[in-house]
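Standup, Tuesday
Yesterday: got the pipeline producing structure tokens again.
Today: sanity-check two examples.
Blockers: none.

Example 1:
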Amino acid sequence: MTRLKSEMLVSAAMRYAAAELIDCVLVRRGDGDAGTIFIHLDALDGRHKLLARSLDFDGVYNWRAITGDGADGTGWVDAQTAASRLDRELAMDPDAFVIAVADNRARNPFLGPSG
């Protein structure tokens, strides 16, 4: 199985976001070959969520919330909590990409039309 480079994935997601009028900004450019990708979702109503791309046991990539340990399990937190968590992640992995998405539907541009 061929793995796409992080830079290609980010570029494609940014083009898709532009076409769908999703406010999406590349905040930090990471390692082009294999940089971790973080998405900071802002639902424009005070809710924020950090997503990280991870590989499951079947070899399939998924997006998982890395914020919010609440009972609802949705991952939504306030802006400061999301920013603090992102700062901690970047301290461990300075080669990561960070994409900020401000969208009232909280769409993940990496998921395309199905997301």
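Example 2:
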Amino acid sequence: MRPFTLLFLLVSSLAFADPVTLKIGSLAPRESPWGVVLRTWVKAVHEKTHGEVEIEVFWNATQGDEAAQLSKLKTGQLDGAVVSATGLAVVDPTVNVLQVPGLIDSWAKLDAVRDALTPRFQASFKARGFVLVGWGDIGLDRWLSKGFALAAPTDLKDKRPWVWRDDVLLPSLFQAAGVTAVPLGVPEVLPELTTGNVNAMSISALAAEQLQWSGRLDHMSLAVVAPNIGGMLLTQKKLDTLSEQNRAIVLETGALTCKALTTRIRNEDDKAFARLKEKMTVVTSTPEQTAAWRTLYRETRARLAKGALPADLMDEVEKLKP
């Protein structure tokens, strides 16, 4: 075979090679603020890799709840996911320390703690075959309810609060409060809110709006229960199929996407909180009621320290807070 013919065939095979597609799961709707930012990432990867790498996002929990998505990452059915801490905790349960009720109550405190602990988490995910590309916040969780105020822990008595079936934090809180929660996956919540089988929850204003739950709730507390966080995971196995250059592009643009998500979502959550304040009854706890919440949160941490989270890690977070 002549040299120029061999060169032609080689160039042709490269030019017409199928792109590598990264399949990414998400609970977020396509047109949500998360969707807008993620679609920008999809476009950036396509352009910077000249079409050699494509991102396909499966929106709105079409690949199942976060536990299901993480299972699919392990089997190779998905190559990545943009998930909340509940999803991250499927890989490393200690990520939940960033969302312990009453432990962190502002973005400034979260930034100080999370920045310090990020190398630890990155190493932990890497050891399990995942790359923690970056963080992506969901909002500041507050108590929202229907038909009553949650000013003090005693207001939870005989109520039906929702708890994410895969969450390990709030069940401990409700147990400490002597309350029976309603465990549901995210896609199951809206029907239960409509029927009244669920009438309270800890959730961010933005998430409540985007999931169309806020219209079924009418009271909102001012006090922050915890930050609601998330992040972007990719499997190392899939990343290893990319060229070094394309792998760097995916990771760099992914990290920038996570930073953009953090900035945008925090701003959007502030706006959603302002909107809900106009529509809902705002609940402000008295100093005595606030002290009662703190007592409940301390009891919750004591329960978590018995198995769900290391006590020394929660103590470290206390020390890292500004």
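Quick observation on example 2: The first helix runs from residue 3 to 15. Residues 18-320 form a domain with the D-Maltodextrin-Binding Protein; domain 2 fold (CATH 3.40.190.170).
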